[in-house]
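subagent[fold] <- orchestrator: predict structure for attached chain, return tokens only, no commentary.
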Amino acid sequence: MKSIITIGRQFGCGGKEISKRLSEELGIPFYDKELIEYAATQSGISPEILEQYDEKATNSLLYSLSLNTYSYAGATSLGVPNLPLNDRLFISQSDIIKQLADKGPCIILGRCADYVLKDRNDVLNVFIHCDKDIRTENVAKRLGIPESKAAELVKKTDKRRASYYNYYTHQKWGELKNFDLAINSSLGIEKVVETIKSFYKI
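subagent[fold] -> orchestrator:
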């Protein structure tokens, strides 16, 4: 049985709400911003600073060297001080994701978790998507901003997430072959949650 769920998502499609509902209904932990708190505790860097670099790629050429040369444990203790903070945060969160997965069933939102846990055989990788117009409408309502600004924010956030994922995984963000299940959230939150739950239990 798959015991870990990773969720990738387009901005504005309800990925966080779906993750929380799944967590409640399956009775397993859900991790999102908590990963920043854990990374802050391990590194001694304030979570407010780390959040500015969360799910953002850097232009560093050194991160791949660090991934191959240094252990995750060493990196999370800032054992690679010359790396940009983006890279150190990615390494730290990757290590934390592995530790959490080792503890038992859980749901992890974003942060290349599907890639980080690619060597495990107990992971269900899900990607949630939705039509851009619907996502724009969702974001406008949630943030109380005009749809023109929401559309720009959707475009900008998706681009940032794609850049982050593509950079650290050398794979293409949202590409179907990287996931076990891709689902359109326009079906409604309830149906999406039920579908993932059913798939999880098969």
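orchestrator: received. Logging for downstream: Residues 147-169 form the longest helix (23 residues). The beta strands are 4-9, 30-31, 106-109, 123-129, 181-184.
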